[in-house]
Fold this sequence. Notes:
heterodimer; A: alpha+beta; ten-stranded mixed beta sheet; two-stranded antiparallel sheet; 38% helix; B: 2-enoyl-CoA Hydratase, Chain A, domain 1; N-(1-d-carboxylethyl)-l-norvaline Dehydrogenase, domain 2; six-stranded mixed beta sheet; 20 strands
Amino acid sequence: MKSENDVVIVEGVRTPFVKAGLDFKNVHAAELGKQALKELIAKTNLNVKTVDEVIIGNTGTPSDAVNISRVVALNAGIPKEVSAYTVHRNCASAMESVAQGFDKIKSGMAEVVLAGGTENMSQMPLMMSKNQVAAFEALAGARSGGQKLSALAGLVGANLNQVKDLVTTAPFSETPNKPIISLMQGLTDPFCGINMGQTAEILAKEFEISRAQQDEFALSSHQKALRAGESGIHAQEMTPVFLPPKFEKYVSADVGPRKDISLEKLSKLKPFFDKKFGTITVGNSCPITDGAAMILMMKRARAEALGYKPLGVMRSYAFMGLEPERMGLGPTLATPVALKRAGGMKLKDIGLIELNEAFAAQVIACKKAFNSKKFYEDRMGLSEAVGEINDDILNVNGGAIALGHPVGATGSRLIITLLKEMQRRGNVQFGLATLCIGGGQGGAVIVEREN
Amino acid sequence: MELSLSKEKINNLKTKISPHNEAVRLRPDGDIAWIEFDLPGEKVNKLTSKVLVRLLNIIEELSQSKYKAVVLISKKNNNFFAGADIEEIKDLKVQQDARDAAAFGQSIFTLLEALPMPTIAAINGACVGGGCELVLACDYRIATDDASTKIGLPEVLLGIIPGFGGTQRLPRLIGLQASLDIILAGKTVLGTKAYKAGLVDLCVPKELLLSEVKKFVNEVIKKGKRRKFFSARGLANTLLEGPLKFLIFKGARDLVLKNTKGHYPAPLAALDVVRKTYGKNLFKGFNLEADVFGKMAVTEVSKNLISLFYMTESVKKQTGLSGNLSVDLSEVKNVGVLGAGTMGGGIAQLAADKGMSVRVKDVSLDAITKGLKTANDLFSKDLKRKKITKYDLSRKMSLISGGVDYAGFKELDVIIEAIVEDMNIKKKVLSEMASFCKADAIVASNTSSLSITEMSTAWPNRENFVGMHFFNPVNKMPLIEVIRGTHTSDKACATIFALSKKMGKTPIVVKDGPGFLVNRLLLPYLNEACYVFAEGLSVEYIDKTLLKFGMPMGPLHLIDEVGIDVAAKVAKILYSAFGVRAEPASVMSKIVEAKKLGKKNNSGFYIYDSAGKKLNVDGNIHNICGVQKTLDNKYKPEELVHRVLFPMVNEAALCLEEKIVETAQDVDLGMIMGTGFPPFRGGLLKWADSLGVSKIVDDLEEMAVKFGPRFKPSGAIFNMARSGKKFYQ
């Protein structure tokens, strides 16, 4: 039932998603966010003076743009008077931004909100080792000539030790002399101390998911993404990114889906996280990726007054927690809560699902859990399972295994992809976007297609 | 104390000129006397003769007083002194009067310098010309670090030299190298830089100026008067400023000659004064400065430069409507640019540079990328020259976005069309675009040759359609022709006129017609140069002769730059519009047939390397055109200049008669800003007036007999000659 207080999603635009270390390597997250946001503003012919709030998700927190939302907003031409803040809920940062937009509009604190996320994982820094930091501090603190000389020697020593450790220890192992890879730290849970890939290994083992099942899932993700890319479906939600600093090139397609992929090739990849017993490979995990995705949301009354025809209505959202080492199951806990908040809906009411593909094993584990009565009895004290996930409505245009998962931007990408497909299909009323969150949480958003 | 003007003359001027008492106030403040400058009814202070007399009276009063310090300060917002009154300089016609005017100012400043108590200038805002010379005569100077604080001596830009002691006191204060840098280029420096150069004793934040001055004065009262002299730092500088100073003078002279090509006498004259007087008797120095000022002030070059200054100043006040009517305009905050080519990219860069948001549309993402690159390259140059910071660059580039659809066009106030020069394509794109734009959006076409009135039929609201003709390269060429079609509304015209100014350009309003103004006048000149070439004269001689006249580039070289095919095309358009007087020289099409298109394909009258650098004249060019070479001395330089420029004057008279532009000033601004017609000549029609309209008509008639009917003077100029009229009445 339509209400003037509905929160509508007017439009969404994302950048192409590009594997880390490639074309977006030198494009700051704020720049990616700006290009996406500017295109969203242009596409909707939005009068920027109407904007009440800009909320942008980001996890890397670049040190030269700590409130990246404000940087994106100002560079995108949002008036200086408009408030802008950054949110961080790890993998769900961009979904959190949309959730906060929803709350602000529902509570009457705002009527026009720009939400979304941006992430440049290529630019997550290498940090100095502890010993090197100490050597630099000694140098800065040195006063006399002798002190300076010995501090300098200390710095040389720290550098030599670094080289030594780099040569003699395992690639990702930590020592006090090696530079710290912030990306690796970010993907390692600080509570339980295991890597995101290892959380997927746990699920694969506990839910008895074979390597072959995972590889098949990954292959299908690529195939669906390729089909959607070639038929122009992805282009409908994308804006090209013109590449600074020289502006000699642009990127207008996702760099992730691979034509040359096959089960045979996937099966040859070595497990990355558990070399001995593991099944998780780089082929059945989502790649480290750069990208941004922005959404324009409004109170329905305002959207109508401004003459917009929205893509859909946001009905509810939910975030739920669980033990960090099984973070991949997050969607199974957030979804029933979101359904309930959407007016007591059931999973069978949902006609289309975007469930983020952090790992193939994690998605398959979620599917199994969704359909397990015991799981819900144990976990949530429910009397029945949430229901079966129909593959025909799941990630129909490919998922993060093919497209990539720019952590802070995926949440809004899922909602855009979902709503655009619901519009294309025309016969789906309700949709679900859900994802797992590093640190042991899940997020879910229920949307309704707008006629 | 010796003064450069005699006591009698000073007294004479004092009685003849009544002092402007309100412009300069003396405010006692305990031991301190504040001299406050505040010229009533003006935004800036000017050193008019009346102000000078008032200042003289105050100085005389102070010389008898017991004050322990004197502070000079301006009560204007962000202005200390804009300099002497240009109006008075303009009216100086007699060399001796001009000399005395300078010597009068010098004498007053010398009396100021000789006051028994220390004097301190507190400078915020522009402090240039006479204002700068005033503070140089003080014992101490304090400047603010505000961006508006600019100290310097721009006199040479008006064809004169500093005349109130600037050539004497500045070199003695900051040394030869730094002072020549300012004097010869007419430069100004910011407060921070002035502090580094030793030009001021302190540089303080604007908000703290008063409190810092008060602190400073208390210290100075203890220290007393002083005369600061430059002392060089380091061996190299000590040698250069002393025994080896001839090296500096030589380097400075070479640089001036390179920059002025010998057309502007003032910088050389200023250099000469400094060279002859540096380190010698100050009184003699003042005398020479005043003499040379007198000479320069009455030159035609100076008068022309001053008139050009007034022209550009008057544009600032114009609205672009006849009678200077004003209409209610909303400020243009965002513009669309249709077409991301060289012009489109340049226009986008310019708009973004001035803080406007820009949406570019082209048919391919490759084209958009090129447009962004054009803009980014220009900003990167500014970054390299430290004109902007990396933050400025990213902010400015962020203002530009683009795409292959009309996304964002509904929000645009103004759309500038810069697509291919083809009427049908332009019309097609305009009608396609219409449904994506606001009903009251103003559309400006950057066409250089097509009819605005005809093009406007493709736009639903033809009143909102107007021409905005930028010149290439957009970032460098200062002119914009605002073309009024038959139906263009006042509002559209005034909006684009104001937008042009906001973009930092000089606009002139031109009525729609073939070639508008600049190309219509330029083509007869280029065409005639081709005729001369077709008689067998060398490319070098033709181009050099016009370079010597003061053109920034010879006509044949310019044709190469424009593109010979483009020039031929425009010539054809004008021929079909104007008939016999615009008959194109056949060599143009011959060169095009030989696939020589000019700079763009590295081969025209000249040969270019792959980077577009001009190498030498194509030795084969006469053969290609089937032209027999003759000796260059067939025409004397003056004959040649007249032959190629008089058709231009003839055409200009017609333009005025047809009201293509309203005034001779518009023609001159157009030619100076649009083609680089030598500023020291004051513009095409100022130059024509200096020769005499009737001489030009006589010569044109003679040339019509000799070279063909295209020279026949038009009725417009003929009537002017008969009634003894000039272009400038």
